[in-house]
Amino acid sequence: MRLYFIGICGTAMGNAALLMRDLAFKIEGSDDNVYPPMSDLLAASGITVRSGYDPAHLELRPELVVIGNAMSRGNPEVEFVLTNRIPFVSLPELLKEHVIQGKESIVVTGTHGKTTTTSLMAWTFECGEKKPTFLIGGVPENFGKGYQSKPESPFVILEGDEYDSAFFDKRSKFLHYLPTTLIINNIEFDHADIFSSLDEIKVAFRRATLLVPKNGVIIANGDDENVREVIVTAPAPVETFGLREDNTWRADNIVHREMTVSFDVIVKGTCEARLELALAGEFNVLNALAVIATARRFNIPYECIADAFKSFTNVKRRFELKGEFTGVRVYDDFAHHPTAIKHTLHALRTKFPLERIIAIFEPRSNTTRRNIFQKELAECFMEADVVFISQIAREHLLAPEDRLDPEKVIADLKATGKDAYYLANSEAITEKVAEMTKPGDVIMVMSNGAFGGIHDMIKQKLEGQSAVKS
């Protein structure tokens, strides 16, 4: 079958296209933003990617078109598909029909931690010799790609996003994924362009719980009050995880080190193992508990889980060390929500208790561009010593009264005594950062976009200054 992906270079769309190619489908597609690394991955796999959206691309009629959720009416290729009655589906529909049906579908959901948890889950199942099919909205470094196709395996592991499926299907993506094991990491308000309230988000998660069969399981964060509220009426069995005493799966005796965190695994009051995870931060202990509960459900021994946890090398753009330049460590993280920013900086402070931490944040997501978290953004940087915030992305697309005011965030931070700066773009931030940094400093860049290539700009500026001085 010939598939054509409109919006093929998005992380999820590109990985899905590669997965479908491995299932012997012929793949083509188009995108308005054809750039590495996804464009290189697709090209290396022999997939033709056309730049821009042009009806001429579809003159050799595909048997099925996959329309990405960033597409809308008015897109020339979308209009051509509709006018010419070419069969089309959303990406979640495609996965449901051709990848998930009849499998043990392990779906990882939640506002935060989905990509890391799904990646750790896939690696643990791989180390446990389960050889799963998986699709992840990122690039797990252990695999070097965000997908794996193993049609002979009974297991499919999916990152389950609550974002909508397509312009013609406003249901959350995870409602297509037929979960037999549903993980709910946490629930907070996000995606302000899709949901109008936290209650609407809870409705989506409740609907997900209704899909789990009675011989399946819901594995939920029992420390999160919003999650507890959602699972009350779930018809499937529920197991909880967290740090509270009443959770089914609990972590205790947590010890944080610079590169790892170790903890006891307590199951219904009994200590079953002590594990060490090659990730920092208490939030990653919670992610790990969800993985442990799932792995043990499918009889993966603790020895295999321990090996997976020790050898896990994280995900691109999740607490990723970009390098050390003239004695300054530069990290990158996808954090784009106040809670994620707070967790990231707490993990960084745990890792570097004495060093000066410089936090750089781009308000780019559809939620943080708005003033919904105006107050919370001023509170989530407390563990940084210096804070930089840029101009909000795509400012012109929001009414002035709806926009985040980053200058006010900076003013509120300064009022607490924090060294904080509002600078409009990555160039200005780079100049100021290079001017103030000294060996031993730690920089954390947080954005869900490319942020103008700021990591390379900082590297070049710091190394350039060092060369001049020497």
How would you explain this protein's 3D organization?
- The protein is of the alpha/beta class and 470 residues long.
- The chain has 3 domains: 2-86, NAD(P)-binding Rossmann-like Domain (Rossmann fold), CATH 3.40.50; 93-311, Mur-like, catalytic domain (UDP-N-acetylmuramoyl-L-alanine:D-glutamate ligase); 320-469, Protein-Tyrosine Phosphatase, Chain A.
- Helices cover 32% and strands 24% of the residues.
- The strands form 4 sheets. It has a 10-stranded mixed beta sheet, sandwiched between helices. Strands 18-19-23-20-21-22 form a 6-stranded mixed beta sheet, with helices on both faces. It has a 5-stranded parallel beta sheet with strand order 3-2-1-4-5, sandwiched between helices.
- Helix 13 (426-436) packs parallel to helix 14 (454-469).
- The radius of gyration is 22 Å and the shape is globular.
Secondary structure layout:
Elements: E1 2-6, H1 11-22, E2 26-31, H2 38-44, E3 48-51, E4 64-67, H3 76-83, E5 88-90, H4 91-100, E6 104-109, H5 114-127, E7 133-135, E8 147-148, E9 155-159, E10 164-166, E11 169-172, E12 181-184, H6 198-209, E13 217-221, H7 225-231, E14 238-242, E15 249-256, E16 261-267, E17 270-277, H8 282-297, H9 302-311, E18 320-325, E19 328-333, H10 338-351, E20 357-361, H11 374-377, E21 386-389, H12 406-415, E22 419-422, H13 426-436, E23 442-446, H14 454-469
Parallel strand pairs: 1-2, 1-4, 2-3, 4-5, 6-9, 6-12, 7-9, 12-13, 13-14, 14-15, 19-23, 20-21, 20-23, 21-22
Antiparallel strand pairs: 7-8, 10-11, 15-16, 16-17, 18-19
